[in-house]
Structures are given as C-alpha cells and as structure tokens.
Amino acid sequence: MGHLSHDQLYRLARAAEAAGLGFPDRRQLLLDGLPAGFVALMPVNAVPRLQLLADLQRLNSAGELPDGTVPLRVWLDNASLLTGGGPAEPAIAEAGTWLSAARGGPASRPGDSRPGASPARESIFISHADTTRDRAWAAWTVAVLEGTGRTVTAAVWDDVPGGNWTAVAGRALDEGGLALALLSAAYLRSPRAEQEWTLAARRDGDGGPRLVPVLIEDVRAPGFLRVRTGVNLCGLTESAAVRALLTVLGGARRPAGNAGAPSGVPFPGPAG
Fold first, then answer.
1. What is the reported pTM?
2. Where do runs of H (alpha helix) occur along the chain?
3. What backbone phi and psi angles, to 5 degrees, belong to 107?
4. Are residues 98 and 128 in the same domain?
5. Of 87, 84, 138, 100, residue with least CA distance to 8
6. Are 138 and 192 in contact (CB under 8 A)?
7. 77 within some domain
8. How many CA atoms lie within 13 A of 238 on its CB side?
9. What is the pLDDT of residues 180-193, one digit of tens each?
10. pLDDT by residue (tens digit) across 87-110?
C-alpha cells in the first residue's frame, strides 16, 4: 500500500504532466537528492507520460530509506521548486499534505492541546547564508535555541561533506515546529536560502513549520516574508538578542548555562 491512494496519485500525476514535469530532461531534476542506487532500480519507460506515472508509483510505494529520506517527499520538494508557484503548485502542495497525513506527520498546530498532540515547536530549522558572518550568527542561534531543549537543524553544523543536505533539510521541515530565516544581504542573494524558504513556506499552514524571519542585518525582507511577524536582532547586545530570539518560542524555557555566551559560542553582534 502506498502513501497516497490511487485517486490521489493520479490527480498528482495529471497535474505534473500538465506542468511539463513529464519531459525527460525534468526527470533527473525531480529525482535529485535520492540515492543513486535507489534511482538505478526504478523502472524505465520510453514514453514520457508513462515514465512519469511509473516514477510516481515507485516513489509512492517506497518507505523511508535507511538514511531517513522519504523518496516521494524528495520528488514533491523538487517538483515544487521546478513549477515555481505555477498552476500545478496547489496539487503538489496537496499531495504533500496527504503524504504527511499518511505518515502520521504533524497534524496539530502549535498550542494544540488535543490528546496525543505532539509538543508544540520542539523542532527548529534554521536557514542561513554561507558567509563567515552568517554562519557565525547561525552557530550562535543554534546554541541559544538548543539551550532550551529544542532540536535544531542548521547547515552550519549539519551540512557535512558527503551528506545530502536537501534530504536533511526536508526531514527537518517535515517535523513541523519552526523554520527561522536569518535575513542578511548575503541571504537574499543565496540560491540555497531561496530554496529552503520556498520549501518551508510550502509546508507552512499544513502542519509544517511556522516560518519566522530573523533580521541579522538591516535588509528589506522578500514580499511573502515581509507580512510575517519577525524578530530584529540588529544592533542588540547579546542579552537583549537572547531575549528577542526566545520570543519566537512563545514562552520557552530559559537557556541552560551561561546565557551571556551560550555553549561557549561567541556572539556575532555588538558587545555591551
């Protein structure tokens, strides 16, 4: 039995075909991030429309791989990026919701008190640029938030040589909770950052992470982030920045240890 029902899968396939995702040159992009050994064993069909359907059927039937990757989730994330908010995007987003529900993913929103609901906002994903300064801010942010007992995923620590960052980021975003975008001039120019916030925004509102902009430089946020309530760390001393950052948790526990230098990670902002 697959993640999606027969009708759900065919609805997705029709939308994908209409968006041009059945063309042969799209297949490699759609399967990007999946292990080569897994892709090598997928069925091959000379007819593009049938190849698309065969791929979706195989991905739909595949469970979680040993590295934690969910093949259908990888395909949906890649499809979302390729369609870029076009007519097929609602069907792709809907399939993502069905997949989360089928896998018992987070169905409750933060603050849900129903029996069996998961603790709100325990998992946090941090999206940041790859400059030295942005990585320093990311490392400091991770230290502060991990001090509250949260599980935090960020490229500064979790994107390791030989790893599959797309899969790591996708799994972290699937866990719900929060996604923080550390906004700077470098971040707004970063293709990887754009990919990450696109994936987070697609999940936001469907039991996925709540996307929060965090300004580490005085920059103007992109349109869809501009309408969200964010946190501004620009110009703050470390103690003030810790207090501001913890507001995203909505009454979080105080950090363990020395809040002046959490986990020994230097503060990238002004001293004082």
1. 0.60
2. 6-18, 24-30, 36-40, 48-61, 71-83, 89-102, 132-146, 155-158, 165-174, 185-189, 191-203, 223-226, 238-246
3. -100, -10
4. no
5. 100
6. no
7. yes
8. 17
9. 999 999 999 998 88
10. 888 888 888 888 878 876 543 333
